[in-house]
Amino acid sequence: MTESSILYLHGFTSGPQSRKVQALAARMAARGLADSLHCPQLMASPAASIELIEGLLQKVGGDRTATLVGSSLGGYYATHLAEKHGLKAVLVNPAVVAAIELERYLGPQTWLYSGESFEFTRQHIAELRALEVPQLADPSRYWLLAEEGDETLDYRQAVARYAGAKQTILPGGDHSFTRWDDYLDPILEFAALV
pTM for this structure? Predict the structure, then answer.
């Protein structure tokens, strides 16, 4: 494993095949950093997902060198882990109050890329509540990337939640964060990879 790495945490029902992950992987490969990107397929269970990520963090020497990049629900997970391990995190249109924001998705769901189905349950909501971070210890370790046109989450909640952090708030766009490609190199700089 390389000295520094990026651990990308995808959103609800997404996966490592997402456009954002693929674009970041291509940019990192072009810069000779292919081995520095890690993006596990997360699970329906938030507790199981955190356990998986914790194991990966140990493998990459995470408490010193990993930067978390979390999109949507992955941003919620990244916040929990950044606080627990003192890591830096880039949050892309992040879920701020995931337990409330995901209530509407209770029931059968389908993973976007594999087509496999899973059940999102009240137990999963309770697991999300257990991961909530009441207050950021050091907002300077965070960078919020949000688009005002996010149709899924209210960007203003993220602006308030990450007060004191570096914030890039862009007009228009949508939940996918349409200007992702413009921020690939700045993310690598934030992660001290270039």
Answer: 0.96
